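Z., the sequence and structure:
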Amino acid sequence: MSLIKALKIFFIILIISLLPFGYNCYIGSKVYYLIFTAISSYSLLTSFNKNSVSFETFFSLLIWLGFWFKFTVQISLFNSSFPEGSGLFDYKGNSYDQILIISSVSILAFLAARYFRLKFIFNYNKLKPNNFDNKIYINFYANYRKNIMYVYLFSIIFFAILNFIFVFFQKGTVPETNLPFGLNNFINWLLMFGLTSFSAIMIFFEFEYKKKNSNKIIKYASFETLISSVSILSRAMIFNSTAIIYGFYRLVEINKIKIKKKVFIKYFLIVLSLFIISLFVVSKIRQSKDFPIGHEVHKYLPTIKTETIDGTIKDPSKTVLIANDLAKEINQIIFLIAGRWVGIEGVMAVYGNKNLGMNSFLLSFKDKFDYSNSFFENNVKGSKHIYKKSPKIYTVYVPGIVAFLFYTKSLIFLFCGIFILCIFCSTIEYFSYKISRGNIIFSYVIGNILAYRLAHFGYLPQNSYKLILAISFNLICIYFLFKMINYYNKK
């Protein structure tokens, strides 16, 4: 059995296990819930097929987690308690039905875009197995392999530490150091996915150099995603590192080299271990910086109650403090896994607000950064909370691309918007593959970045051009990298 088939079986078991609870607890029409389940499950499971691309795989996974999985878990296990808030949603059966219709339409648009891409744009399986025919690049890599490795590792550590000390960019905070000429954006790009992109190039060169399942650069790449995530206080390390491993898996597969399951299981366990470490470390740093928590974390693990003597709380022992602190951290991690996904709550908030329309959609593009909440929080959910300006920390809630497009209250606009955006993102992934000389690892990284941003879309939408510029800069760097190697070889 292949690892991808095993992954599909895992999701099938998870869906079958949760389905009876969701079905029993759903208060609307059961038919709508079953249709929603069927469409969501089909979209997820087929996204791991060989003819899918990275953007589609990661986007379908994020949509499934943010919609079907989160919705089912919350109505089944937590009495419809949606932790990030659903605005003016009334929690009636008919309203739930409408939410599932909106969600299903968006998933159908995604499936239509996937079919269109497969039919008219590109398919990895129909491209040449390897566009990397020119040995100039491999010879260059072989000759300077150690020097390249030293520069690569130094850059990873240097920029992560530099940013952590001077805070050019960290999630949920205002930069403490502003560099001239917009260089803060450069640091942002490097730590978000620039260094990961160079990891993808290194892994690709190493593979072409040795043609093996085993590739030590993957361990370095996993280390890079760990320290970069800690540096920017991000808890999303798992996505970049998984894109690297999945892209490498596809590279080995496309080159018709036998997959060694133990090797890839080892890679995944390394990433999973580092991810858990990153969650603990980032959580501790955020607590030390007094990050606000705008949602209630469910207590999956109970804490140890302290004894009282004559109504006075007795000072707990160090063991009790450590145990309670550990339980608190584990509860936070489980909450992130079970309830922090973006999707269904945004749609609930948008549906619950009857005053939205096309004008609201257009007005959202005029939103500007402020310590008060975003357009989504203030104008859609009705929250008027204002964060303190000292320390310079704030919390961002996003509607997700589905809810954002539904500001218009039009299912047709929603369907067309999702369809066009998915085609656009898949096309960018294709350009990434071509410019990188057939490096599917690199194109998988870019596809993952696009999927993550689209799933978490909605905060300061007018700034979307920055992501496009960052990806374009990424592609230009890769293009000139190959040009420079060619130039050097001709000297």
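Residues 1-491 form one domain. The CA atoms of residues 74 and 80 lie 5 Å apart.

Let me know what you think.
H.
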